[in-house]
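User: quick one, sequence for these tokens?
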């Protein structure tokens, strides 16, 4: 009787181990698929960032900005008499009505 219980115990443990390994295998496969999807998303975002940096470099190009400013505004370079020190701001504000 002890041998039968002993054998049944190990058969039961083998079945539980087999089912556990089966479930673990498919969980690992799911996690690997999830990891692959996340890695692809990271690659896509890195490409997007690279494109955005290139666009920003183009949009912030000083020559391009200067052309746009001349075309759309009437800004002119500052004259030396227009530049004052920070401490003089209070005096200028008091002089103007």
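Assistant:
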């Amino acid at each position: 009787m002890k041998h039968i219980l002993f054998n049944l115990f190990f058969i039961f443990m083998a079945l539980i181990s087999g089912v556990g390994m089966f479930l673990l295998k498919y969980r690992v496969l799911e996690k690997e698929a999830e990891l692959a999807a996340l890695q692809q998303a990271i690659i896509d975002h890195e490409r997007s960032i690279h494109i955005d940096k290139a666009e920003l470099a183009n949009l912030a190009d000083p020559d391009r900005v200067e052309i746009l400013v001349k075309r759309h505004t009437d800004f002119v370079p500052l004259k030396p008499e227009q530049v004052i020190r920070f401490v003089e701001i209070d005096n200028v504000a008091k002089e103007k009505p």
